[in-house]
Amino acid sequence: MNNSINPVLGEQLFDPLTLPTFLGGESDSGVDWSGYDNTSNTTPVVFNTESTSYCTVLTIDQTHLLLVYRGFASKARARIVEINPSDGSITTSGSEAELTADSVQGITACLLDSTHAVIGLEDAGELRAQVIEFSGTTISTVGSVVNFETVGSESLSLTALSSTVFLYAYEKSSDGTGNVYYGSVAGTIVTAGNKLAFEPNQAINPAQSIQIKKMRSDKAVIIAGHDGADDMEAYLISVSGTTPVLDHQVSVKSVALTTFNAVSIDRLTDTTMLVAFNDYDAVNHEAAIITEASDELTSTTPVEIFSNIVAHSSLVAIDENQAMLTTIVQDDGIYTNLIAISGTTITPGTSYEVVNGDKEWVSTSLATDNDYISVMYEDDDNSSKGTLILLKP
Hints:
Layout: E1 3-5, E2 45-51, E3 53-61, E4 64-70, E5 75-83, E6 90-93, E7 97-113, E8 116-123, E9 126-135, E10 138-142, E11 146-150, E12 156-160, E13 165-172, E14 177-186, E15 189-199, E16 210-216, E17 219-226, E18 231-240, E19 243-254, E20 264-267, E21 272-279, E22 284-293, E23 296-299, E24 303-306, E25 312-319, E26 322-329, E27 333-342, E28 345-347, E29 351-356, E30 359-366, E31 373-379, E32 385-391
Antiparallel strand pairs: 1-29, 2-32, 3-4, 4-5, 5-6, 5-7, 7-8, 8-9, 9-10, 9-11, 12-13, 13-14, 14-15, 16-17, 17-18, 18-19, 20-21, 21-22, 22-23, 22-24, 25-26, 26-27, 27-28, 27-29, 30-31, 31-32
């Protein structure tokens, strides 16, 4: 499909250092995506025939993807698929692992290394985390679930700072505060550290309104909607021992917030992040660059990428000069826009419709060789089945 819409002029973190090209999304492999025109994408393939939501796709290596989602009986599940990058077909699909005994209302995940991942869950009203261990397409161990606290929120986000340390950001539904926990891992055992209320004043309200991403081994950035101030804000987080610390926060833009703010974030360099979000006043989806210097953040003026509100979005930084923003427009389809970046200047590309129809819960991840982007989603036009498609330059 190559349905181009008028260009508007104006979302993977492989944290372990075993693959240097995946330090939070930045790549040095040099694949040029500037000619992307939506014509080389693969045909969508179904990986789960049951209803699939809260999707997260993570790249393990060039041919293996970790898929985490809410599946049958509304329980958290995971599987690893081996794919053929040339045509996007699934050559081997590993057995599905059931992660929880209860139904879940929120799921997030991040890789620790090439054989371990942390899964974050809102499970029976509790903020929980667990580690899975895997090899090839086999999930060999599902670690014990650790309760962090009672929250009851769909807004969850994880990022790994190293192979044994992660940060866990979330909204606490009882008071609307934005919080982040320190977490550590030994084998498949999770230990909860201390918590920081990075935004104590009615920070985040609905789903898809908070994202955290590693900037470097001692820093992470949170993008979230500040509900009380009608602001989209960025927060610089560091770690002192086992305690997260708020170094600085900056307003990205004063925006009206509502049910789906569709925030997404990825790392461009050691000191810059790209963020995207809905602006309900301007009725569009915008992107901005967040820069850190001397423990303080600054933001560029946001640039319109899509001239409409989106239901979900996911950013992938291909390298420091190009990023793919993938969005779902409710009841309309999945759209992409290849954003060009030069320093702190954002230039939107052409927006393309990748697949048409009613889709939900998009998640994207860059291949280790930088030559395709995996797109995972719920296909409501096909009995809500879990589906994969590869974007290719």
